Amino acid sequence: MSKIAVSPNGSGTGTYTLASPNNNASHTITLPVATGELLVNTSTGVSVTGDLSFGDSDKIVMGASSDLEIYHDGSNSHIADVGSGDLNISGGNDLRLRTPDGENGLVLNQNGSIQLFYDDVIKLATTSSGISVTGTVAATSYTGASYTGNGSSLTSLTSANLTGALPAIDGSALTGVVGSTTAGAVGTYVFARGALSTSSRQFVWNSTYSGSGLYPAGPSAFVGATGSGSTWNTSGYGMAAGYYLASALTGTWRCLGHTHPTYDNPVTLFVRIS
């Protein structure tokens, strides 16, 4: 049987007391198989020699109101601030979150960038003017200030995801842009005529016109001036007021051709721009 020896210090004059709490249960304190001081009282607190071992879900609890908890629940480890304040984690220089094999996941550089990694390779970093991204950005939508650039890296844009004003975009390098196939929608084309008056027969290339004065062209779009409401003018002459069968267009259109006001019912190509 092993023995327990309590050795006093011959030079000391104080008395150390081992006191039992007011409790009816029996408890056992098991000493480690080691030599040395387990607890040392210092000017700043208590110094512990060796490891402190806690069982699953046993917590290190700190704070007057038990505000901070550190524990392992048997599956995962937790650092939990359960009080009313913030959880502040700081490093002496930079702060790094790493995987068990040492790969960087997140690095917060003191007075510098914050870096986000994929497989230990930087993919996103903050800069003094914004962010820097390495690789491809995949987003379901984009909102905010207008895009600046030549568009050479923008691919597979659908019109449904382009909203708001799009000023001064050079689309010469855009690929995979899908436009609408709905008749009369922005970006679609139509051959159209003006009204019967001479002033509305002339269209100038690259000029814009309101859709309210444009009508889709074609023999099924109008009744001739000599018609009676059901007789088509197959000779191609003008449209009489009140005999339009096609509705006027809406929006704003750009003329892609040119017509002359002396011709009856001039037809040319338009594209809707808004």
Biggest sheet features: 5 strands, antiparallel
**Overall mean pLDDT score?**
78
- Regions with pLDDT < 50 over 5+ consecutive residues? 220-243
Which structural class do the helices and strands define? mainly beta
Assembly classification: single chain
Strand content: 25-35%
Q: Using the alpha-carbon principal axes, give the shape.
A: rod-shaped
- For the termini, the CA-CA separation is 97 Å
Q: How many strand units?
A: 17
What is the H/E string?
EEEEEEEEEEEEEEEEE
Radius of gyration: 41 Å
Counting DSSP H or I runs of 4 or more residues, the number of helices is: 0
Strand order of the largest sheet: 6-7-8-9-10
> Considering DSSP H and I runs of 4 or more, what fraction of the residues is helical?
under 10%
Provide a descriptive summary of the structure in words:
It is a single chain. With 274 residues, this protein is mostly beta strands. Among the domains are: 89-135, no CATH class; 141-179, no CATH class; 189-272, no CATH class. It has strands at 39-42, 45-48, 60-62, 68-72, 77-81, 95-98, 104-108, 114-118, 121-126, 131-133, 189-193, 208-210, 215-216, 222-224, 239-244, 252-255, 268-272. The strands form five sheets. It has a five-stranded antiparallel β-sheet with strand order 6-7-8-9-10, with no helix packed on it. The chain is rod-shaped and about 125 Å long.
